[in-house]
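Example 3.2
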Amino acid sequence: MRTNNLGYPRIGGNRELKKACESYWAGKSPIEHLLQTGKDIRLHNWNLQKEAGIDLIPSNDFSFYDQVLDLSLTVGAIPPRYDALKNGNIHDLYFAMARGYQQNGLDLTAMEMTKWFDTNYHYIVPEFYKNQEFSLFSTKVIEEFAEAKAAGSITKPVLIGPVSYLLLGKEKEAGFHRISLLNKLLPVYIKIIEQLVAQGAEWIQFDEPFLALTLTEEETSALKQAYALIKEKFPQVKILLATYFESLAENTALAASLPVCALHIDLARNPEQLDAILDHLPENLSLSLGVVDGRNIWKNDYQKSLKLIDRAAKKIGKERLMVAPSCSLLHVPCDLVAETNDTTLTPEIKQWLAFARQKIDEVVVIKQLANSENITDAANKLKANIAACESRKTSVLIHNPQVKERVGNITDADARRNSVFEMRKALQVASLKLPLFPTTTIGSFPQTAEVRGWRAQFKKGDLTQKQYEELLKKETEETIRFQETTGLDVLVHGEFERNDMVEYFGEQLQGFTFTKNGWVQSYGSRCVKPPVIYGDVSRPQPMTVFWTQFAQSLTARPVKGMLTGPVTILQWSFVRDDQPRAETCTQIALAIRDEVADLENAGIKIIQIDEPAIREGLPLKKDDWQQYLNWAIKAFRIAASPVADATQIHTHMCYSEFNDIIKDIADMDADVITIECSRSQMELLDAFANFNYPNDIGPGVYDIHSPRVPSKDEMVHLLKKAAAVLPASQIWVNPDCGLKTRHWDETKKALTEMVAAANEAKVLYAEALV
């Protein structure tokens, strides 16, 4: 029995990659510093896994931005708008595709970004054209294998499989399906494998996560064709085919029939699939058992994992088994050892956790226990593991009878507004007196180094509560004045007191705890530190009323109360796994409901409850969607429904495809929904238009994830596209997401252009009426 790892976090234990990328983008350090930082992280990761005892160590799991973008560059899937950069600095090209480019007389938009299956990780969506040509443009995967080899490790290169890569992309012109490009793509994969074999690669991992989804006949045929060709060309190469995030289900026989050497399955997400797979496994196929959860931070229960391994070993023998995490460890923090603050993360809770470094050790210990290796040490670790698991089950920290009773007493009326939208809108129009095409932002404004510095000083005790609040009040007032001067209709307070849209709320809710260095990559250099939900959730006191009420006191224009919704808090946290997620989500919904009521009582007329993770939370199996949507939409409605009809409820969603769930989005019954639309050039609005979505919509008119500043004309063009499919009376004008990560100079320019675009749209609409 061997050990296998699918991928390791690439940000560095102290977010070295984030700092190096942002320094390079700002022109503060040369490319050489960024490249060296990447090399240092890779070498650290390989040596760590080698010393721990991992047999199949991944390479090419590192990325400066995103692994899908890396593959697009590797196979030359570079959209034509970047042609001017193709013969220049490859790093300029790479980051232009990720972030846009506005230099040297060029103004290039970034590629679209969306969620990686049901995770909070974002990938850069490949763009495909009818006559697409592929070529080996970047040799990163070969170079990193050679780098690891020179450092003493023969690694297992990791590539997204050819079929999943095509399915992750989008057709950018009509008249073809991207899967038809397989015959043009496969020769590039063959070249990659040739060069890896020449370098001495023995194993290559192909990730085909779409095997966990429903496949068409054409997609099934494509998988068979791709791996038959690879086997024909390279019979000596050991291919490990990896699936994760769900069970193979109806694709079990297909996956087991593909001509590969090993199949990886996710037994953390779906242990029930093991027996079906064992029944279909041919004699020449090994099995990688993903028993250690790569998506969550709870310590593995060795006894449960050993039972699964024993079941498999009895059927096919230990020599055909590998022990592994369920998926890449990209989704968990680097190392629990870095958590040294016992006040933030108490020893009792810490003993229940495992981060990436600890999960590597878990994989090795499980293998030792299954193989009866290193008996004394492994037995002691099993004993400690049993004690930690039992401690969690019996801890008094976890259960709150009052919270459970309140959840049990929820009625249907608690999840309904008093009146239908048409009646509410009439009251809101009369109360708010907003113009046509009203302008607003999504919530946050730039958090400068100075603002972050104040927070750090306050936490260290170098600033008193009063000093800290005075600094934040000054920043808030300046932001209110800027919004008034710019001409925005509905203002926000800027959220300068908040570290993160989930962490900020979790810090004030019971049942949550936090880490000091539990950072996880969300996209590019953007890292988040998810809260840990370990017990029943409740709200001891108001969380946002003070700052919202202060901002509203500074202006006659409406200021939105800004909250994060229950589903998003759930999705973007490490969630307890000892009760159904639906129950935890309902507990959070009740806490947010209390905050909504307090904001309304404080005189706030517009309250935004952000739910960017609604779509992300959908199960990968479509048959399971409705059950999830029932409790997720109900949780939002519980949070949003205690207010009067004249109080306007907004929500925000980003980087999601809504076509399949548009009815459920409408069932949320938010008065206004703001969505990401700029990178997709308003194509997301088709779902709302075709459905005849009844409530108001703010389609994002510029991309805040790119540093480029869009022109007024560009945004007018997008508003025209929106007005072509939606009534003008429904349209709001806003960026596509919060502005926290942007700089003030680009923010001010972009919002000035946005307001000008809204004003021009009003004129154009008035002229059209005449």
